[in-house]
Write a structure and sequence with these properties.
- The complex is a heterotrimer.
- Chain A has nine helices and ten strands.
- Chain A is α/β, with parallel strands linked by helices.
- In chain A, helix 5 runs parallel beside helix 6.
- In chain A, 46% of the residues are buried.
- Chain B has one domain: MetI-like (MetI-like fold, Orthogonal Bundle).
- Chain B has twelve helices and no strands.
- The mean pLDDT of chain B is 87.
- In chain C, 79% of the residues lie in helices and 0% in strands.
- The chains are: A alpha/beta, B mainly alpha, C mainly alpha.
Amino acid sequence: MEPIIQMKNIQKYYGNYHALRNVNFNVQKGEVVVVCGPSGSGKSTLIRCINRLEDIDEGQIIVDGKDLYDKKTNINKLRQEVGMVFQHFNLFPHLTILENITLAPIKVKKVPKKEAEELAMSLLDRVKIPHQANKYPSELSGGQKQRVAIARTLAMKPKIILFDEPTSALDPEMIGEVLDVMKELARENYTIVCVTHEMGFAREVSDRIVFMDAGEIVEENTPEEFFNNPKTDRAKKFLSEILHH
Amino acid sequence: MLKNIENYFKKHKFQFWIFNTVIIVTLLKIFQMIAYPETHFSEFFTKDNMRFLFFGKPGEIGGLVLTFILAISSIFLSFFIGSIFGIARWSKIKIIKIPAIIYIELLRATPLLMVIFWVFFAIPVFSMAFFHTQAHVSPTVAAIIAFTLFTSAYVAEIVRAGINSIPKGQFEAAKSLGFTSSQTFIHIILPQAYRKMIPAFVSQFVALFKDTSLAYTIGVIEFFRAATIINNRLYLSFEIFSFVALVYFSIAFSMSKFSHKLEKKVEKQLNA
Amino acid sequence: MGYEFDWHVLIEYKELLINGLITTIKLSALGILFSFIIGSIVGIGRASKNFWISLFASYYVESFRNIPLIVQMFFIYFTFTLSQIFPFLNSWGNFLHINDVDAFFSALLALILYTGAYIGEVVKAGINSIPKGQFEAAQSLGMNRFQVMWYIIYPQAVRIIIPPLTSQFLNLIKNSSLAMTIGVAELTFATQQIDAETFRGFEAATAVTILYIFLTLTTSFFMNLIEIKFSKGVKNA
């Protein structure tokens, strides 16, 4: 089976800074991959290339069989298949929670309003905050906002979900409720690529850990192997710093 | 390929401006060919007309020179008057603050044209009321008074904002060193505040420069009125007013760009 | 006091003043509406990531900002006969009870173009102040650039820019006074008329100034109400 995400020989520069070096990265359908590494290692940049929020300078990216840089590829259509959950939630402050979730299905997928609202309510049920439907984002806590953000992404029924440090901006007591939702999704059919520092989550649900440093993929392995038997010095250093916090 | 053009122009600013000028001239030419096919620029561009436009009638000061004189004298005077009102506006003492607020808000709510008329009408009235003589000032002096009053209100707001932008810590440090209020202002606050206000002052000057054209209404023969006088004779409004627009644009635009450069320089200095 | 104030003049000429006020209101209301529309289009263009769109929008902004409004009015009024080029202006003029269609619409057009340029800059600043994450979230949901701007960015920007926008609207009301130079019988024109006939320019100017203050205060008040109504939701999410 062709991997659902293929990234070949990627190079990316910010001016003179070499942000991604010779990156080759594939993800199989249904796989749950965690990308970790020190700050500035390029992990956020990597996943933001998958839905073209960032552009690469060299290389090829194929998502769900379509080349991202082929002129015939409709990037907006493709983005419907690739959902993203952001570190700072990015909910739309001028819309209610319900509107936040139904806006894209109605305007982009042309789903009728009633159907979209029913789907939205069932998703809010799923993330355990149906009573917040008519409130505004500013009235919710961080953990609730992130769960709404996940519901908003799920409303588009994507095949792939990208998580960019989803719990890094949350107060500690709210991290658990978001991780619970993510763990459920990991057990379902979604293909997930998640950038995170939450190693417990990584160990529990991921199929593969990818370790990046200074723009390169340094080590890739199953969680057991990576945590118990890191092969490279840089990975060992990273693990010792993170686990002895 | 398009991204390369963008990057090229970012690095080669001079070529960028040439490119802009070419495109704009082309667009203007197309507009002219559609809107006004037969132009008579040669009738307009005579030595006499140009001398009148830029320097006024022989023996008098007028034209663009007078425009600059109006703008420069007004901005100079309004700098002082505006500073006084600006500091008064900033002050916490009600007796000082309230008259300043009234002065500033009244002038800012009034169209400049009305201020010009009001000054023009008010001078004989006040001279009659207080000195029992009917004073007559030249339109030019009346214009300068009007521009100064008007601009001083805006300068006052700039000064107030400038003083407000100085961190409280500066006042506190000065106080703890034993400075009095006025010493604090003169030696610590105002020097910093005025540096920050320079871009806003230049921008105000550019606006004033454009507004000098309103002196036309009370008979001052500055650049714009000179143009209307020529137009009353030649009836070549397209040629004349497009030239006038071009001159104002060139001067105002260059001054704005200069102000941007100044702003960047000041920012660098203050953040050093 | 050596000068005798004669405030009765104002009552004698109250029709002139009221008609002037109404014309000023017509100019201002139409001017505010259309300059806001043009300013929004130009501002969105200025904020665009597309180099060429942003460049052409900046041509508009720089051209109309740096040429005095009175020059623009004169250029349009004396060079073109708007009612001939755009005959529909005649019926609009009838509908609005406007006597001198050419002068009115020349002044209005210049006001719209000039103020639109300033509003363009205000809108651009507003759009640029929206956090990048809003744009990214909308894009990642599959919205195209138009949808992102229309449903997410622009609605938020409009709420943020209400104060500087109000400032531009007030400027427009004050700038409408320039229409008198091409013969539009608005408020400032009334001042001059009264002075020409009675030499009581001072009284007239005082009354007209009060009327302008009334107009600007009312507009500020309404814009404040609008801001309060829309302030829901601008807080960070």
